[in-house]
Amino acid sequence: MKIQVLGTGCAKCKQLTANTVAAVEELGLGVPVEKVEDLREIMKFKVMSTPALAVDGRVLSAGKLLTPGEVKALLAT
Amino acid sequence: MSLSVIEQSNKPSPCCANPYANLKPGAPPESRALVTAVLLALGLGAWAAAYATVKPLSEWLAFSALGLAHGSRLGESVAFFLYDTPKVLLLLTLIVFLVGIARSFFTPERTRAILAGKRESVGNVLAALLGIVTPFCSCSAVPLFIGFVEVGIPLGVTLSFLVSAPMVNEVALVLLFGLFGWKVAALYLGTGLGIAVLSGFVLGRLKLERWVEPWVYESLNASAGFEQERLGFTGRVGKGLEAVREIVGKVWPWVLLGIAVGAGIHGYVPEGLLASVMGKSAWWSVPAAVVIGVPMYSNAAGIIPVVEALLGKGAALGTVLAFMMSVIALSLPEMIILRKVLKPRLIATFVGVVASGILLVGWLFNAVL
User: Fold this and answer.
1) Which residue positions in chain B have pLDDT lower than 50?
2) Same domain as B160, residue B274
3) Which of B71, B27, B98, B78 minimizes the C-alpha distance to B243?
4) How many residue pairs bridge chain A and chain B with CB atoms within 8 Å of each other?
5) Integer Cα distance of B199 and B356 in angstroms
6) Cβ B195 vs Cβ B180: under 8 Å
7) Is A3-76 CATH 3.30.70.890?
8) Which residue among A9, A10, A11, A25 is the active-site one?
9) Annotation says A54 is catalytic
10) Would you say residue B144 lies in a domain?
């Protein structure tokens, strides 16, 4: 399982990374959360708003600061 | 005091029992919507009651409870602050809530789909209009820019959107309406849209594509982006509450600061003092306002109380409007972000064209009104 947070480094993107790390810990997944900050890399995911959350290369959420609970729900499915 | 009223009426408090808890897990969506509708009606009722008590309460506080004299400088400043703070915050909460609901119908992806394949002139107008309702944050400016360009939306049309999105601010619009009436609000809306349409059109004519960083065009491979989830009535109301938490939670210190500055101007700056500096007869005041306003960056909600106080002291409407537009439309953080996809020359042209548009609006208003 590859978890990536896409964002150029704005406050919301940092917060989403923190929330995702918290969710991964609570679920006990034991996988790292990768932060994608390079714009060209972000554009490969075809998102038009950041921050975004991608799992195994598939975008699950974009343009929204998810709470740790919401990240957990997304990761659980 | 009124602050706590806002929080009670418009924010879901985690302490209270979940109003949806009584519904059975398999309950039809209609009963969920009914609970939402009842809660919404209660919230709006509490809002209206709070709004109606703002004026008498603030006057009683300033002149009776604090014992300040009518007409004294301190008294007028304090009364201005006590009246404007709850009023502006209440208006802001309601507006942000309603706009949050409206925005749940527009996503950047849907806006892009509407704009794709439109002719340049029609595209500029549509882009400016959609700029008002599409959720936009300056940190998303670059992905949005690329997303627009990669489906073949012309550069000028994309720039119309990027001008209109911050400049025609729904919060500013409704606050202007609430504080000065519909005429000023309509002027702001009309001229803001006009500047966005025209500057995008002019920039499109200038054929500036070569000043876009080349990698933007290299990475073009247009395809469907991310699909947003479907929302019901309850989901949309939830979006509105989310917007209130996010936006009001972030801008309220700026609003308080803005009102404090406004209150100071209101009480201590003599009537008519600004008429010579910022009045109609001083033609140079409009460019001066733009030059001062461009590097400044404030939230729309924070700048409006200052606008209110300046107008009250004899500053001309065109000058004040030009100042406000240049503060909120052109911001340094957004320019720095856009630098990743646009070369400095294009950014400079962009700022120049938008600033000229604002300048014209300022002069136009001072000449007509």
Assistant:
1) 1-16, 224
2) yes
3) B98
4) 59
5) 9
6) no
7) no
8) A10
9) no
10) yes
